[in-house]
Structures are given as C-alpha cells and as structure tokens.
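Page 42, continued from yesterday. The earlier attempt failed because a stray header line got pasted into the input along with the sequence. Redoing it now with the clean sequence only.
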Amino acid sequence: MKNLKISRQLLGLIGALMIAFGIATYFQISSAADAIYAERTDMLRTQVESGLAILQAYEDRAKAGEMTQDEAKAQAFRTLTAIKYEPNGYLFGLDYDVTMVFHPVQKQVGLRQAGQPDKMGNLFREEMIDKARKGGGVTEYYWEKPGDTSGEVHLKAAYSRAFEPWKIVIGTGVYIDDLQVKINAMIWKALTIGGSVAVIGLAAAWFVIRGITLPLKAIHNALEEVANENVDIAIPHTDMGNEVGMMAKATEELQEKVRERHALSARQEEQQMQLDSERQQNADMQRSEAEQQARVVSTIGQALEQLAQGDLTVRCGDLGVKYSGLRDNFNEALSHLEAAMAKVNAKGVDIGGSKEEIRRASNELSQRTERQAANLEETSAALDELTVAVRQTAEGAQEAAKRVNAVSTEASRSDAVVAQAISAMSGIEHSSSEISKIIGVIDEIAFQTNLLALNAGVEAARAGESGKGFAVVAQEVRELAQRSAAAAKEIKEQISRSSDQVQNGVQLVGEAGEALKRISGQIKAASDIVSKIAHSASEQDTTLRSISSSMNQLDAATQHNAAMAEETTASAEALANDTEELLNLIRGFRVSGSSSSGLGGMAQKMRMAG
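This time it went through. Structure tokens are written below.
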C-alpha cells in the first residue's frame, strides 16, 4: 500500500467509500423493505386482532346468557364476513381440521381444504393453522388474483391467529407483489441516486486528486532539480496554505540551504586559496630563514676556523638585518683583539731590542769588571748607559703589561659576545619548539575537525535523501581537515630540520666560544710573562742604582761587583729566554699590515737583527 501512488491510494479510498456507501444503501433499502413488509404485516395483524375482538365480544355475550353459543357464532361469522378493507381485503375462518367456517364467498363455507396446496405446491392452509395455534404468524403463498384470466400467480401473504374458545383460526391475506414493485422502484431510485453521487464523487475526486498530484509532481520535479544542485529554478505552489504548500516551502528552504552551501563552498575555496597562499608564504619565509641561518652559521664557522688558525684579519661579511648585531659584535671583538695583538707585537719588538742591549751590556759589564781598576771611568759611563737602558726596559715592560691586560679584557668581552650568540641561538631553538607546539595544536584541531566531519557524514547518511547535501559538506570539511593535518605535518618536519640546523649552529658558536677562551688563556699567560719581565727590569734598575751609588766604593767591592755582574748576566739570559718564549706565542697570530708569515716573520727578523 505504501508503494502505491497517492492518486491510486486516493482512488482506492474513494472506491472504498463508494463500496461502503453501497453497502449502507443496501442495508437501508433492506431495512425499508422490511419496514414495508412489517407495515403490511401489522395491517393484517390488526385486521385479525379486530376479528378476534369481535369473536371475543360474542363469546362474552354467550357466557352472559344473552344468546346461545350457536347464535353467538352465527352472528359473529356474519359480522366478520361483512368486513372488507382495501385493497381486496377480507377475513376468513378455518377450524383446526382445515374446514372453512366462514368466508365472503359462501360456496367456500363448509369445504374441507386439507391437503390442497397453492400453485407452487405449498400446503399453506396447514401452515397458517400451525402458526395460528403457536400465537400467530405470517404465511406466504402464491395464488391467482380475482378476475385475472391469464393464469399468472402472485405472491400473497396471510396472517392467521387462533381463537381457542371456539377452536377456529381467523386469517386474512393480501397480495404483496405491489410491495415488491414499490421496493424495486425504491431500489432503482437508490441506484440512480447512488450512481449519480458516485459519478459526481468520482469527478470531484478526480479534480481533487489532480489538484494534489499535479502540485506534488511539480514539487517533485523541483526537488529533483534542487537535488541536482540547480538553485536557479522557482519553486511552485509556495502560496498554497495546505500540506502541499508546506512541502513547497520546505523545498524552497532546502533550495536556500543548497544555495547557502554553494556560497559556503565558494567561501571555503577562497579561504583554502588564502590558506595555501599563507602556507606558501610561511614555507618561503621559513626556507629563507633556514637558508639565512645556515649562511650565518657557515660564515661564523669559517671566520672562527681562520681565527683558530691565528688569522686576526678575518671579518664576517653581510649576515642580513636580523643578524647584523651579531656580525658587528663579532667584527668589533676581532678588531679589538687584532689591535691588542698589534700593540703586543710592537712591544715585543721593543722588548727584543732591550733584551739584546741588556745582553750586550752584561757582557761589557763583565769585561769592565775585569778591567775596572784600569778603566773605572769607562765603567761609570757604561753604567749610566745601562741604567738608562734598564729604565727604558722597565717602562716598556710595564707598558707591555698594560697592553696585555687590555687584550685580556677584550678577550673577556669576546667571551660575552659569544655567550650572547649562544643565547640568541637558544632563543631561535626555543621559538622553533614553540612553533612545533602550535603546529601540534593545529594538527589536533584538524583531527577534531575530521572527526566532526565524519560524525556529520554519519548523521547525513542517517537522514537519507534529505541529508545528501550535508554529506557533501561533511566530506568537503573532512578533506579540508586532512589537508590541514598534512600541511601541519610538513611544516612540523621543516621546523624539526630547522631546529637541527639551529642546534648545529649553537654547537659551532659554542666551539667558537671555547676557542676564544683558549685565546684568552694564552693572552693571560703572555700577561704573566710580561709582568715577570717588568719585575726583572725593575730589579735591574734597582741593582744598577745601587751600583751607581756604590761607585765610590768600587775599589773595596771589586769582587762583589764581579758577582753582581754575573747575576746581571744570568738575569739578562733569563730575560732573553722569556722574550723568546713571548715571541714564540705572538708568532702564531696574524694582524693587518703584516706579511704572510704573520708575527712569526717579524720575530724572525728581529732575531736576525739581534
């Protein structure tokens, strides 16, 4: 039934109503026919009961002694015989032996009619007596009408009832074929009216069904167009106020939802394009930053490598705006270190010259000591020269100590710069980890979006045909979430590679810091050596001053002066050795304006000059 079209269902309903109407008409006609027959039967019963009343009246008079029993019967029979009613109605009487006791036709009186059937062979008289003795009843039989010579028989109904005091049955009959004609006329009338009503009802049903099916068909076509993503058609019958109008309004709302989904899809495509553009920009920016970081690390690594080899002329080139501070600090530290080493170089040359003069003076002192008795004046002059030279040596040593301390301070500042570089690299690494966390959050959001899209697809699938549009939207959202997860994973991998590169940069900068620390240690060692030289020079100056003050006692202290000359020679040798060690340390550095052999070449020249 549910698979039938609405028009057929409505036609079936109309047909069922017609059948119910026919059944009701049948029962109504049957009830009317029964009422007509009952009315006729009531009339017959009324006539019979009237006759019984007359018999009872004469029976009462006979019992009262007004007349004899026979006289009462004779008068009663005459009275009943005279009774007539329309149409062709009369009363008759039979005793229990089926003998006619009174009848309007006198020749019938006294005849015994037992065993005489009607025209159809029914023993209707015995049946009338039997029903009469049981309290009365109607007996139907077929008989000819009076004056009818055609021999045709007609249905006749007779009502009979017994009068027990006289043992007779009073009955009356009437033809009922007229009732059948009346009933047939009523049936035909009912059929005519029913047929007219059926035709009118079918016509009205056809009109109503077309008024339902045609709008439904139009709405069905509109729904198919909406299902095919056509949102340009006009939805018909939205002005109707019935269920069809409600369906049309619902279809129009669905069309609006599809139109909104189209607009949403267009916005999503635009957002996807913007997201792809932003993702590409971020990827380009990250790739550019990674390349810049790699170039910064490579440039600083090469500079530190040359610095570790003793080349103080190396400088970092352009590292970009972001790392300009690191470049300036690094270059400034190297400039300070180069300047300090250049000063150390100059002071080393001076110390070398002073060392040779001290050595030569010591030799001369030793010789003059041997000849001092004869050449005291030459010794005094040489002593004055030696005093001046030692004083210059002490001043030069003190100045060298100050320069070396300055170099040590600049080396310490270089350590701070390297520490800042390491901190900057650590900050970059921390930023990369924070970005990785953000990408993880984006990945989790993409996973939740994918799960929601899957649930929306399941709900849309449950909704059936009406949920197809939502299923498409859910699928699009799910694909967007999957692409977002894939992009987040790719960005996370790139950030991981950047983090590895930044970590390598941190390691390289740390190694550069260690190299600077070693350089600082070497400079401190050089500072200690220069301090020793200054101290030795001061002691020599004191000793020479003592010699000058003791010149008047030279004769008395010749042996003592000889011993002191030997000590001076030993100190000069120590000073020469310390100076040689200092020059060996300085030899490993290269500064601007020096030859390819660096400070070592200058020291070699100085030794050759000595």
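Notes: Residues 299-609 form a domain with the Helix Hairpins fold (CATH 1.10.287.950).
Reminder to self: strip header lines before submitting.
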